[in-house]
Each structure stands twice: as structure tokens, then as C-alpha cells.
Design brief:
237 residues, mainly alpha, two-stranded antiparallel ribbon, 2 strands, globular
């Protein structure tokens, strides 16, 4: 849950969003690294592979996700504007509601967690794990849920980024015109900063390489900075 959204008077600016976005990058990378220590364990993704005393029909991961989100809903996680559940029929919070500012002018309930779940299970997990079954079902599913929640929050933060760009006086009128024209292609061009995206991908690659290293061979240079076997791309000719 995001405490920062409570102290904002309105939609956050790009500058106010940046720290959260960078922290989420780290959270996602570390979560993926943790999941990758276990094998694929495909059994936890197969529907009706396991039986549940409550009569639930589905996979172990979806059952576990439902149970986790029911607990989190009770402590008002999904009352926060930057949190989106993967499951439905969630209980009401036991805590009183918080007074969040209007961070989105038109807070449409756009939730793409179904697509995120499908992409994560069918593309990400096979790409970061070894084939096989090590029976670490609970640990694997716990890491899966951490990854899914972090990915969901980061991806849905795009709505705040888009809102911030829309509210920018320098481009607001252009956005309004394109929206009225329903010119989706031009809107995407206006929203997308290719240079920033390229830098983002380079930063993520560098972080993944560094965070995934065995730092037992790391040392300090003359200035007290950590030296690792990985050479930063910026240091390359």
C-alpha cells in the first residue's frame, strides 16, 4: 500500500512518481531472482491437480492467490488507488477507509491483471526457472504471488504516469484534441518517450546482472565504492 498517495493534494507529478517507479524495479527484479531459485514446478499451475478441503476448483497458485488477497483485502490493501486484486468477491476491510486524494481525474476501473497473470505464468516463469519439479510448491507459489503483485502495481502505475503527462500544461491541449479525435496511435506516440524507455531497459539489464551476481568476490576501490566482476555498460568504450 502506498502511504505517499495520502499526502498528495492531487495527481502525482512525474518527479513524485519516479522514486516509487525505481523502487518497484528493484522489488520486481529481486522477486524474480527469488522465484528462480526453485524449479518450474508446473503442478502448481495445473487446474484441479490438487484437491482443496474448501471445494475450490482451480490451480494451487490461484487458490493461494485467492487466500492471500482475502487477508490483504481485510486490511484495506485494495482501497489504495495503486493496488489491484487478481481475484474477486473480496471481503470488506476491518479498518476504516482512508481519505485518498483524487489522483486520477477519471478513475475508471481498468484492471489488466488477467493479462499480467497469463503472461507471468506462461512466459516469465518458464523463462527464469529450470524445468523439473523440486516439490517446493508453497515456496514457489509464495514467490509467484510476490512477483505478480509487484508487476501489477508497477504496470498499473502507468495510469498515474499518463495522468501526469495529460495534466502537463505544455501538452494538455494536444491530449484533449487527440482524445476527441480518438486518435489512439498519436496518443501512444505522445505518451511514449522512446529515449527514456531505452534508458530504462539498459538500467534494468544492468540491475539484473548486478543483483544476480555472487558478491563473495566483490571488493572496495580506493573511494570505498563496491567493485564487482560486472563491468558497467557506461564504462565500456
Amino acid at each position: 500500500m502506498s502511504r505517499n498517495l495520502l499526502i498528495l493534494a492531487a495527481a502525482p507529478t512525474l518527479g513524485e512518481l519516479r522514486d516509487t517507479l525505481v523502487r518497484l524495479e528493484d522489488t520486481i527484479i529481486f522477486a524474480l531472482i527469488e522465484r528462480s531459485q526453485f524449479k518450474h514446478n508446473n503442478s502448481i499451475y495445473e487446474e484441479n491437480k490438487m484437491s482443496f478441503k474448501d471445494g475450490y476448483k482451480g490451480s494451487f497458485v490461484t487458490w493461494f492467490l485467492k487466500e492471500v488477497e482475502h487477508v490483504h483485502a481485510k486490511v484495506r490493501r485494495y482501497q489504495s488507488p495503486d493496488e489491484y486484486p487478481f481475484t474477486g468477491n473480496l471481503p470488506e476491510p476491518v479498518l476504516p477507509p482512508l481519505d485518498y486524494p483524487p489522483v486520477l481525474v477519471d478513475p475508471q476501473n481498468i484492471n489488466i491483471n488477467e493479462e499480467i497473470f497469463d503472461m507471468y505464468i506462461n512466459t516469465v516463469v518458464p523463462g527464469i526457472t529450470q524445468l523439473g519439479d523440486d516439490t517446493n510448491y508453497g515456496s514457489s507459489a509464495t514467490r509467484d504471488i510476490e512477483c505478480l503483485q509487484a508487476l501489477s502495481r508497477r504496470i498499473h502505475y502507468g495510469k498515474f504516469v499518463a495522468e501526469s503527462k495529460f495534466q502537463d500544461p505544455a501538452s494538455h491541449d494536444e491530449y484533449v484534441r487527440l482524445i476527441r479525435e480518438q486518435n489512439r496511435d498519436r496518443l501512444m506516440e505522445l505518451l511514449t518517450n522512446k529515449q527514456v524507455e531505452e534508458l530504462l531497459l539498459k538500467r534494468l539489464k544492468a540491475k539484473a546482472i548486478i543483483y544476480g551476481q555472487d558478491l563473495s568476490s566483490a571488493s572496495l576501490d580506493a573511494n570505498g565504492n563496491v567493485k564487482t566482476p560486472y563491468e558497467s555498460p557506461s564504462a565500456s568504450p
